Structure formats: structure tokens, C-alpha cells
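Hey, resending since the last one bounced:
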Amino acid sequence: MDPTAPQPAARPASEGSEPSDEEERAFFEPDGWDERYSGEQQVWSGHANAQLVAEASRLAPGTALDLGCGEGGDVVWLARHGWRVTGADFSAKGLARAARHAEQAGVADRVDWWQVDARSFAADGRSYDLVTTHFLHPPNGGMSDVVRRISHAVAPGGHLLVVGHAPTPELADRISPGRRSAMFFAEELLPALTDDFEALVVEQRPRTMTRDGETLQVSDAVLLARRTPASPA
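The C-alpha cells again:
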């Protein structure tokens, strides 16, 4: 995903109009994203998101889950920096693109793929040293439930990194109410964490974004939390 461009929850309605009910539904569903990824044009830049680089660079490489991986920019970055990565997304065509990009980057042997919808995510015994998701925006304020679900996949001593668009006026005033309701502030996610997590970063980080030739000052909501290490036997 392109760290300098609006991510899914911030994509404008066509021609500046309010999206139709069908357009709004497709925006949050796998078939809508499969259609978007069906074209020849690359949707995202392939660069890693800025907050992933800022935070994961400080961690010792281990296993990682990138939920909502899109075309795999963050997956490739993590794999290049020594992580064993599972890229997860609800779009089969997005995952196919991501797999091609990992192959082209020479890191396919360090990556696995998982088609899963974040809204019904279940760890089912899987655990990772880092669980990360960037600009995943389920509708109707559903990100707290997603955080609750994916936190169960964080191994003891591991980290959870959640980054999204904060609903600041510079961005929120330009999109439909439905898409605006999918944005969040970092502190709104804290109640989704269990007591065995320590919040390390809970803040909105300003960032310059260029959209349709216009430079905007926006804010990334950033939550970084660490799960308590397992007690010695």
C-alpha cells in the first residue's frame, strides 16, 4: 500500500459524488476488492507503510501476520528484513497479486498466504511475534472488534501494531459518512485489549499526504501494544 496516498477507507466517491448503496457495500466486501484488483494497473505503490517501518525496525525479526495485506508491500518489507510472514486478506485476487510481488522480490520462500476476513478472524491456535494491520477499516466502527479478534494471535511477548486513518477534518470531511465511520482514533481501540497487553504507543501521528494533486495534513492513528511474556515454568 502507498504510504503517501489515501488507503481504502479514505478513497473518494467517483466524480466527487456520494457513493451509491451498492458502491458503499462493495467498498467493504471481498467482491468489491476483487474487482478493483482485476485490472492491469497496480493499485498501491509497493512501498511499506511508514508506521510499520518506524515500529518494526526496532523489533527483533520473528514471525509476523499482516492482516489486510493488499498487494503485499508490507509483507515484502518484513520478509526482506528477516521476518517469516503470513500475508492475509479477504480478496483472493489481492493475495494473488501479493504472491507475484513476493516472487518478484525474491522473498517467496519466507512468505505464506491466508485468505480470511478480518471481521470473522479466529486465531485457532496460530500465534505470531508481530501482528500488524494498516489502513484496514471495517464499516460501522468495527475496528475494535477486529482488534479484539487479532490480539489473540499475538504470541506472549509479541507485539500488536494497528494503524489507520484518524477522522480528522482534513480527510474525514471529504468522504461519505459510511466511510468516515470506519475511521478511528488510537485510544478508541484500547478497550479491545485484554489485561495482558501493555500499550506502548497510543497516538495520532501527523503525516503529509498528496491526493488528487493536493497536499493534505492528515493523521495516522497508531496503536502499538506488547503482550506480557509467558511466565517461566
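Confidence is low (pLDDT under 50) at residues 1-16.

Sorry for the duplicate.
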